[in-house]
Specification:
Blueprint (H helix, E strand, L loop, with lengths): L9 H19 L7 H8 L3 H11 L4 H18 L7 H7 L5 H12 L3 H12 L1
Helix pairs in contact: 1-2, 1-3, 4-5
């Protein structure tokens, strides 16, 4: 008679849950420098296990996931921008330090320049 499969230990499941466990930490620290080691520690997984679980369950890298969240946050900030808010300052607030690269990624992701999004927001407010 075949043996029944053993139930995995709790520690064995931790890498599988790493993306879900790391997401709140990443969101809470978007405007700060985020390292793979810090994210992995917050998720209770090794950096390698975290990377593998992101590839497997999110079809993304950790870096790509963080970048996507930062771009979305930047868009939210731009959509709520006031007259005195500068596009580059809002990028920094979202954790995007390389403005030229971030602007190119923004345009590719949302189909318009960040300044267009900001301009629309200011036009609504005025």
């Amino acid at each position: 008679m075949p043996k029944a499969p053993q139930s995995p230990h709790r520690e064995d499941l931790r890498p599988l849950c790493a993306p879900a466990h790391s997401s709140p930490y990443i969101r809470a620290h978007l405007g700060e420098e985020l390292t793979l080691a810090a994210i992995a520690q917050a998720a209770g997984a090794s950096p390698r296990a975290l990377q593998e679980s992101f590839r497997r369950f999110r079809d993304a890298t950790v870096t790509g996931y963080v970048r996507e969240l930062r771009l979305r946050r930047w868009r939210e900030l731009l959509e709520g921008a006031g007259e005195g808010d500068r596009v580059s300052h809002l990028a920094l607030e979202a954790g995007l330090e390389h403005f030229g690269r971030a602007a190119a990624l923004y345009r590719a992701r949302f189909g318009e320049a960040p300044s267009v999004t900001r301009g629309r927001a200011i036009g609504r407010a005025g």
